[in-house]
Write a structure and sequence with these properties.
By secondary structure, the chain is α/β, with parallel strands linked by helices. It has 31 helices and 19 strands.
Length: 723
Amino acid sequence: MKIDDLPVSPKVKEVLKERGIRELYPPQEEALKSGVLEGKNLLVAIPTASGKTLIAEIAMVHRVLTEGGKAVYLVPLKALAEEKFKEFKDWEKAGLRVAVATGDYDSSDEWLGKYDIIIATAEKFDSLLRHGSSWIEDVKVIVADEIHLIGSRDRGATLEVILTHMLGRAQIIGLSATVGNPEELAKWLNAELIVNEWRPVELRRGVFSQGMVLWEDGEIDRFPSWEDLVYDAVRKGKGALVFVNMRRKAERTALELSKEVKRFLSRKEVTKLRELAESLEENPTNEKLAKALLGGVAFHHAGLGRDERVLVEENFRKGLIKVVVATPTLAAGINTPAFRVIIRDVWRYSEFGMERIPVLEVQQMMGRAGRPKYDDKGEAIIISTTENPSDIINLYINGKPEKLFSQLSNESNLRGQVLALIATFGVKTFPEILKFIEKTFYAYQRRDTYSIERKIREILYFLMENEFVEVTLDDEIKPLPLGTRVAKLYIDPLTAKIFKDFLPYISGNPNPLGIFHVISLTPDLTPFSYSKKELSKLESEYYEVKTYIYADDPYLSYDPYYERKFFRALKTALALNAWINEVSEGEIVEKFSVEPGDLYRLVETAEWLVYALKEIAKVLKAPEHVLKYLETLRVRVKYGIREELLPLMELPMVGRRRARALFNAGFRTVEDIKSAKPADLLKIEGIGVKTVEAIFKYLGKDVRIVEKPKRNTLDYFLRGFSG
């Protein structure tokens, strides 16, 4: 179908043509003829790069332009939200306003009411529902990208509950490349179903074993080793994406491959890659990344910092980085395709030992092969060292993805959702809770809700016992102030119970280490793990800091689970304590054997939980000095600073390093800086012209600094500074 033939607003057609789109792919045409433009719900299950996002864009923009209202586009990751935000900005040419919302789960964000298209993570939108944001009434379309994550243990329940709330209130569009039971999911959503195997780039799939690639069509190619599959792609001027099962393996493999890939680089590429490597922050993980980059290879995993992940993704897309070795996180929706995808591992470690990587995940990885507009075909090759290649082909290439199952029965997921129904959605009785549950995917799949009824009763007892809710003589369930606050804070009620239990100890002896240990014991924070070698060090450190820790001594009981939990929390607390005492990121990463990305996520979660602890302390009428202490600690966690730097953090472009440099130079308050001369500030290491101008502008002074060119440069002579 030509874009001109689409029954949509001319404004939509104009934007599509500006993007260079003149004609729709077959699955897109099929989807847009399904009734989605007339408001029908839709589930689209088509391969990666077949244009799922565009289907949703056209449908939601058409609806908003013709009927008014808003569209919400849900994504699983913050990085994906940013990516979609950049893509969707195009629609501002059609007169629509686009916004992105992630993080801060304690706000109704009424400012979003001014926007027409809102991109949000599922967790953020769930929190907005709980806060009763007034603009949600105007949502006409809700898109669930990567809807197969409804089967994810971590975030599936959140997405399921959002869709349950929005069923009948808004048009729902679900997008996925891999769903094992799309018919079941579509029926639950009362949606039209589009399943299509068409791809814009042909995908050739095979298995490498004993020096041969056995393709699914029966053809055979020979390569001396799996590594030669990588070098062959680079030799052809193509990119290769290698998936492995562990972070360390990704790093090790990238460093090994870079030694050989380096031979295929041009001088210009070598220079640019050196500049990339030199731009990285110093820490042990980045040192390895820099070394790999010099050879045109990078690794990508959740332990990398956000800036580093973006750097790798962008330069791989540009073709400067030839090979990326990644853990499966890169397959989760980020737009990073390659000509050849090599899946090095189909097994991985879990808490139960080695387990197969699900078919759904492997097919997501294979879907990254083939770059539209660059390749006529893409190649996905699974490496098999011990298994029969035909078994691998049957399972992963010809096999169907696993069925999706509701994760709502997971007690930690259900606990928060039941409290939210009572505290923020006005549900007042047990039958009303069941009525809502009966609309969920869980009830649709299981038919029998007896087991979940029992779980809900147990959760209600827990909520009553811990004073989150009360039950009246008329069997009406009413939220108590603590319950309402916990639901809006978007934390697990069990986390709130832990805070409540420890609050008397915190009030008696507030200290950072003890507080960090408490938040690290909650289900809302994943603490750092430790090795056997680290345990003896942690035990020694425990005896040194024992007086600061509020939790029971791990040696008083013979519970190995509690002991492990206690020391994981202690390691995490010590890392956070180092952070707020201005120990450098590099030192923390090295000392605690963690990755920069893990540290950033820890800091973000810890700031939120210290804030939540303060808010719960407020409801429980904790002394004012405790509330002030917790607020100060929250800011220290956010910036990674000692208390003395707090006054300087209000200044623009001033982070922990610049604040420390200013303080050490004698500028300890905003008043000190107000009375300073720009020249005095410019003498301080790390304080440049732009920073000084921004600081003075914030202080109400218009300062323009003309930089004198460096002596003996062309600029120096041209501007008349010679002599």
